């Protein structure tokens, strides 16, 4: 396959990769998602990651139907990569893509959940040992010996479960013998070109020292000539004897060995000394190569029957690093295995992965779901009252989400998007319970601040085509009213809700215009998020859990109350108090009273 056949690789990139890696190695790096190889060849890490995502999951990347969906996807993988135990594991996590086949999703979930449970079952001391083992593996550059020693460390802490079956098949005694032998090798023991490490063999070390000394003399042949030539040297034999003695003394080589390489046809004294030194270097190079081959053969014999275990350890440690890194991510984020269903998204006590805890979890659903009624206990509850329904009706195709400014509506959309993407990649999700369907496209569209025809057109071009394509689509759209006048925005939103239902898609649409909408289809509902006042610190107090089947209110009096309370300039405060009268002075005063604030406080 030509390099330019891969997405994102043009002539210049192809030329670079061919020059640095060769075509065959470059193709291998792309097919195996080896980010490090492409980065070492000169590509920017971000670009290398994008190329590998497309190369290994081009069709699956179409699930990310908008730039906002892709942004959440990027942020999720960046977050997960932060829990990686090795640099290579981080690279492999960054190139994960959604799966299109349910069995692949289930298979990865099996591995990651097993790794999560294994990580959770380790003591703090054992977790530290695992982290140290992988850190040493990384620092050693992932050599065969480092892989073997890491495999021994992982076996020692007792990692169990399906994810670690390959570790269970290894033999400790063989690995230890192999580790000792591999410690005497620089690089791989495979192949004929083996470099034996210093300290592995005393005789080899002596030969190398003599070779280094001979090379140093050869590079300074003129100085050697000056050292051996003085006024007492009247003939060639004297020069020859002085040269042999000097070189033998400086290199530690036996004089007989030096005499064995002296030339018979030197043109003059300078040529004689230079030729002698070149001959000695060649003689010693041969001696080193012969000894190194003998030692390498002995090392191979020492490894012996462990060859298969070493190869399995190298492969297994790399794979375990990825799964255990994802398991660590899931464990430390308290993530659970989602139930994979045909249709719908339902979460109980879901947490936005991008917000630091503590955070109020939310429960929500759209489409078909079968979470137990008890699973929704507390969902839809606010204060001392109850929403119209404690759980969203199963089967609603669309929800229109309304409510308070800064009430977490966009955060809820982002949470649903993140949960759906994580599940599509075969990863646990940040919730107490979740059901997630399979989607061909996920359309997440954040609110835009601009208000012009260009933004309206680009928004419609972004959200409508994926909605009308064949397959299942999840629509998560935020505040259409921000891109056109409210009346027309309500018309457009009505049209999108109807189209979503007609196309058999699912949708959550955030708006402040719910009261302006025409009657919704039977399979659509309105949910609301409510602000409940201000805290003593004048922060907005919001119940982020939507009330199902209830129209939310924006409650501007809370915002105006905070502005009144925070105003330090008398005239500015007067202006805000004028607005307070417009939105309901009594409500503002009641809010300030509940927040225990009185005029004149700062």
UniProtKB/TrEMBL annotation:
Query: What Gene Ontology terms describe what this protein does at the molecular function level?
Result: ATP binding; ATP-dependent DNA damage sensor activity; mismatched DNA binding
Name the segments for region: Disordered.
375-404
The residues covered by the DNA mismatch repair protein MutS core domain are: 71-358
What sequence ranges are listed for the domain DNA mismatch repair proteins mutS family?
396-572
Where does the record place Gly residues bias? 377-386
| GO aspect biological process, one term | mismatch repair
Keyword list, A-Z: ATP-binding, DNA-binding, Nucleotide-binding
Matching entries from SMART domains are given as: MUTSac, MUTSd
One Pfam entry for this protein is MutS_V
PANTHER family linked to this entry: DNA MISMATCH REPAIR PROTEIN MUTS FAMILY MEMBER, DNA-BINDING PROTEIN MUTS2
Q: What is this protein called?
A: DNA mismatch repair protein
């Amino acid at each position: 396959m030509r390099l330019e056949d891969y997405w994102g690789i043009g002539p210049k990139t192809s030329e670079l990769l061919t020059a640095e890696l060769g075509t065959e190695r470059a193709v291998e790096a792309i097919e195996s998602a080896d980010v490090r190889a492409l980065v070492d060849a000169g590509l920017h890490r971000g670009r290398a990651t994008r190329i590998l995502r497309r190369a290994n999951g081009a069709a699956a990347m179409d699930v990310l139907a908008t730039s906002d969906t892709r942004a959440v996807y990027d942020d999720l993988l960046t977050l997960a990569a932060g829990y990686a135990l090795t640099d290579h594991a981080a690279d492999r996590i960054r190139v994960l893509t959604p799966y299109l086949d349910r069995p692949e999703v289930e298979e990865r979930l099996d591995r990651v959940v097993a790794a999560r449970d294994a990580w959770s079952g380790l003591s703090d001391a054992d977790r530290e040992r695992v982290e140290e083992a992988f850190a040493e593996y990384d620092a050693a550059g992932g050599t065969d010996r480092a892989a073997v020693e890491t495999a021994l460390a992982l076996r020692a802490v007792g990692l169990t479960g399906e994810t670690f079956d390959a570790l269970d098949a290894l033999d400790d005694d063989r690995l230890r013998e192999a580790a000792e032998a591999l410690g005497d090798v620089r690089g791989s023991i495979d192949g004929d070109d083996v470099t034996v490490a210093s300290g592995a063999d005393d005789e080899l070390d002596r030969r190398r020292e003599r070779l280094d000394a001979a090379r140093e003399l050869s590079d300074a042949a003129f100085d050697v000539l000056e050292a051996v030539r003085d006024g007492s040297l009247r003939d060639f034999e004297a020069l020859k004897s002085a040269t042999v003695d000097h070189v033998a003394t400086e290199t530690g080589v036996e004089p007989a060995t030096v005499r064995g390489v002296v030339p018979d046809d030197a043109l003059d004294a300078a040529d004689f000394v230079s030729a002698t030194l070149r001959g000695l270097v060649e003689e010693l190079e041969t001696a080193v190569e012969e000894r190194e081959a003998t030692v390498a053969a002995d090392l191979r014999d020492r490894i012996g029957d462990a060859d298969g275990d070493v190869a399995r350890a190298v492969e297994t440690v790399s794979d375990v690093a990825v799964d255990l890194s994802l398991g660590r991510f899931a464990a430390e984020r308290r993530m659970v295995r989602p139930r994979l269903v045909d249709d719908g998204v339902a979460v109980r006590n879901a947490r936005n992965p991008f917000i630091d805890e503590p955070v109020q979890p939310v429960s929500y659903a759209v489409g078909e779901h079968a979470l137990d009624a008890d699973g929704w206990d507390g969902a839809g509850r606010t204060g001392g009252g109850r929403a119209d329904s404690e759980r969203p009706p199963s089967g609603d195709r669309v929800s229109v989400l309304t409510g308070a400014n800064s009430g977490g509506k966009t955060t809820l959309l982002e949470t649903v998007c993140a949960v759906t993407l994580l599940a599509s990649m075969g990863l646990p999700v940040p919730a107490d319970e979740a059901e997630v369907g399979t989607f061909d496209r996920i359309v997440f569209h954040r609110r835009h601040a601009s208000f012009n025809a260009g933004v309206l057109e680009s928004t419609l071009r972004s959200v409508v085509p994926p909605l009308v394509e064949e397959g299942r689509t999840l629509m998560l759209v935020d505040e259409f009213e921000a891109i056109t006048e409210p009346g027309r925005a309500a018309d457009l939103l009505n049209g999108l809700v109807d189209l979503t239902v007609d196309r058999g898609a699912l949708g959550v649409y955030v708006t402040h215009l719910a009261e302006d909408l025409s009657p919704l289809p039977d399979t659509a509902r309105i949910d609301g998020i409510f602000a409940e006042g201000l805290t003593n610190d004048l922060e907005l107090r919001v119940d982020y859990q939507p009330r199902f089947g209830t129209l939310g209110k924006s409650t501007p009096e809370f915002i105006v109350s905070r502005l009144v309370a925070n105003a330090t300039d008398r005239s500015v405060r007067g202006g805000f108090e004028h607005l307070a009268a417009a939105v309901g002075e009594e409500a503002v005063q009641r809010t300030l009273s509940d927040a225990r604030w009185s005029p004149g406080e700062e």
